[in-house]
Write a structure and sequence with these properties.
This protein is an alpha/beta fold. The chain has helices at residues 9-19, 35-47, 69-89, 102-113, and strands spanning 25-29, 51-53, 92-95, 118-120. It is built from 4 helices and 4 strands; from the N terminus they run αβαβαβαβ.
Length: 141
């Protein structure tokens, strides 16, 4: 006698999104040097009827929450894990900016490992399509 395979957490999440009739969810990724462009992308995606999740903290901009270098250092891995959770929640990823650094490259690889579609505001920096072009675009993140 054969039993149905239990659903994976990802399948259960997809089913819940359908039951709730949620719009498509887009995770915005990219260097925080492109925060203004991320905000513009968020506006466009929202206007198109999509739910948007994006980085919520820019550690490169001064703020009391990370003014102490030790606090900032401790916060970075927590923010990275939070952003990976946003990628898991999303239906697709939108990479913003004309430069891909190591952190963004890892987020793209993570999204693709989960089978998430990845779009780019600048397709020429897609590391899968152009592995050599992205390495020397701008100074590292």
């Amino acid at each position: 006698m054969s039993y149905p395979r239990p659903l994976t957490p990802e399948e259960r999440l997809a089913d819940a999104k359908k039951l709730l009739r949620l719009p498509r969810i887009v995770a915005i990724c990219g260097s925080t040097r492109f925060m203004a462009e991320m905000t513009e992308a968020e506006l466009r995606e929202t206007e198109a009827g999509r739910i948007v999740v994006k980085p919520g903290c820019d550690l490169k901009s001064p703020h009391a929450l990370w003014s102490d270098p030790a606090e900032a250092e401790a916060l970075k891995p927590r923010l990275d894990e939070l952003h990976r959770a946003k990628i898991r929640l999303a239906d697709e990823v939108l990479v913003v900016g004309d430069y891909i650094g190591d952190s963004t490259r890892a987020e793209i690889a993570y999204a693709r490992s989960l089978g998430k579609p990845v779009r780019f505001t600048h397709p020429e920096v897609d590391p899968e399509a152009n592995p050599d072009v992205t390495r020397n675009r701008v100074a590292p993140e």
